[in-house]
TrEMBL record:
<feature type="domain" description="Amidohydrolase-related">
    <location>
        <begin position="43"/>
        <end position="397"/>
    </location>
</feature>
<dbReference type="GO" id="GO:0016810">
    <property type="term" value="F:hydrolase activity, acting on carbon-nitrogen (but not peptide) bonds"/>
</dbReference>
<protein>
    <submittedName>
        <fullName>Amidohydrolase family protein</fullName>
    </submittedName>
</protein>
<dbReference type="Pfam" id="PF01979">
    <property type="entry name" value="Amidohydro_1"/>
</dbReference>
<dbReference type="InterPro" id="IPR057744">
    <property type="entry name" value="OTAase-like"/>
</dbReference>
<dbReference type="InterPro" id="IPR051781">
    <property type="entry name" value="Metallo-dep_Hydrolase"/>
</dbReference>
<dbReference type="InterPro" id="IPR032466">
    <property type="entry name" value="Metal_Hydrolase"/>
</dbReference>
<dbReference type="InterPro" id="IPR006680">
    <property type="entry name" value="Amidohydro-rel"/>
</dbReference>
<dbReference type="InterPro" id="IPR011059">
    <property type="entry name" value="Metal-dep_hydrolase_composite"/>
</dbReference>
Length: 401
């Protein structure tokens, strides 16, 4: 058992599950208990992916620009992605833009299999900024028509504090649990550069005020420190990617209690072939700096004491191998730290650490079982076939032992 706290693995450990929660760790199974024999296997907390885009499970060009997909096809791709994510051992995800609340609801009530979904609904983007994927010749006014209520909603265009306030409230009305804003340009962008800053201090502060009014937070997409600094000064509490974070910025983040969610897997995938996601080939040209920058950011953030989570950020129809994020993190830090980031620390980033993230009494029995030891051989993280058993709230949802 690898409990997710960073403690050494414990061999031959029993975990008692009652009513979907961990009742005890250690000891012998009580008389009459149903026993799952995991001899020779490796038990961890259910994995958490803190940066997913389940609503972008289809070819992005067909989905956002050319409108070649039916609602049925889009929904089928999303449902299949949910099933695959759960089968790969991820029992919780945080969707950072792309779904409306309908998907989270049908997964939560068991109508389709999938991970627990926390989401921001549509993210907040400025006109022509990251998060807007319309073609140059399209009117920005037409962007809202690309949404499919209850299913897909990538972004709400928000220019000025009043529009930000209105759209933040609209996102919460649709079931958002937090807000996301894009405060710099991005890799998967049609209209901006990584060095661009987006949203003003007042616009970001307005979103922060709306989030605080609901007891939650704002996370920001950021690839340069100028935009990130503005966001932190305005009260944002989490940053996605953070590919320019240095020692000075990491110190500021630690002082302000701002978490970091690196996203290495998508960068490597786009560098290999961005067209597989339905994106132009030239997108890959932006990625090299982002990969090296995120590795440096992880090291700087760790040294400063920043809370560091883990996210895959996959987009498009090929979102398998979410565990590759843990493999890539293992190459920068250690397999244990990669696992802790994807379990306990992600639960802290998502503010659900009282419920999940570690194997401890009182936590929900979300558990993942690997066929081989991922700490000894991190390639196991990147092999879906090594995920032999998955439990969600104490219920077996995958078993290929």
């Amino acid at each position: 058992m690898i409990d997710g706290t960073g403690a050494d693995p414990v061999p031959g450990q029993a975990v008692l599950v009652e009513d979907g929660r961990i009742a005890a760790v250690g000891g012998e199974p009580p008389a009459g208990a149903e026993v799952l024999d995991l001899s020779g296997l490796h038990l961890t907390p259910g994995l958490i992916d803190a940066h997913v885009h389940l609503g972008l499970s289809s070819d992005l060009d067909k989905l956002s620009t050319s409108r070649q997909l039916s609602v049925a096809e889009i929904a089928a791709d999303m449902f299949a992605n949910c099933r695959r994510t759960l089968d790969e051992g991820f029992t919780t995800v945080r969707d950072t833009g792309g779904i409306d609340d309908g998907l989270a609801r049908v997964v939560a009530d068991g109508r389709i299999p999938g991970p627990r979904i926390l989401h921001c609904g549509p993210l907040l983007a400025q006109t022509g900024g990251h998060g807007y994927l319309g073609a140059e010749w399209d009117s920005a006014d037409d962007w809202a028509a690309r949404q499919i209520p209850g299913l897909v909603a990538l972004s709400l265009l928000s220019d000025g504090p009043d529009a930000v306030r209105r759209n933040a409230r609209e996102a919460f009305r649709r079931g958002a649990g937090f807000l996301k804003m894009c405060v710099t340009g991005g890799v998967v962008s049609r209209h901006d550069k990584l060095t661009d800053t987006q949203f003003t201090h007042d616009e970001i502060a307005t979103a922060v005020a709306e989030a605080r009014a609901r007891g939650t937070y704002v996370t920001v997409h950021a690839h340069n420190n100028e935009g990130l600094r503005t966001a932190i000064e305005a009260g944002a509490k989490c940053v996605e990617h953070g590919s320019a974070i240095d020692a000075e910025m990491a110190t500021l983040m630690a002082e302000k209690g701002v978490a970091l969610v690196p996203t290495l897997a998508v960068a490597h995938a786009l560098l290999k072939d961005s067209t597989e996601a339905g994106l132009p080939a030239h997108i890959g040209e932006r990625v090299g700096h982002v990969i090296d920058g995120q590795a440096d950011a992880i090291r700087a953030a760790r040294a400063a004491g920043v809370l560091i989570g883990s996210g895959s950020d996959y987009v498009g129809p090929k979102q398998a191998h979410r565990g590759r994020e843990l493999l890539l993190r293992s190459e920068i830090e250690s397999p244990m730290q990669a696992l802790v980031s994807a379990t306990r620390d992600n639960a802290r980033v998502l503010r659900i650490d009282a419920e999940v993230g570690t194997i401890e009494p009182g936590k929900l029995a979300d558990l993942t079982v690997f066929g081989s030891d991922p700490l000894a051989e991190p390639l196991v993280f990147d092999d879906p076939g090594q995920v032999k058993l998955v439990l969600q709230r104490g219920r077996v949802v995958k078993d290929i032992r």
